[in-house]
Write a structure and sequence with these properties.
Blueprint: E1 2-3, H1 11-33, E2 43-44, E3 64-65
Parallel strand pairs: 1-2
Antiparallel strand pairs: 1-3
């Protein structure tokens, strides 16, 4: 679970914000669907990978993405 942020604010704060965003989704998935925490990994990406590269402050850059990392 990758958390992302826009480019507003300090880079290190955005990394922490995006990590908290990913952790919140992990907690929700565990509580709502009973997914084992060992099956979910989180990462805070900060503003490193914006969806809207033309506007690094765009709302769509603040998001969570899922990546499959194993079988």
């Amino acid at each position: 679970i990758e958390g992302h942020a826009d480019a507003s604010g300090d880079f290190s704060q955005n990394v922490q914000l995006s990590l908290r965003r990913a952790l919140a989704v992990k907690s929700y998935l565990m509580a709502k669907f009973g997914i084992d925490q060992n099956n979910l990994e989180v990462a805070g990406m900060g503003s490193r990978a914006p969806l809207n590269q033309g506007n690094p402050l765009a709302a769509e850059n603040r998001r969570v993405e899922f990546k499959r990392v194993g079988q």
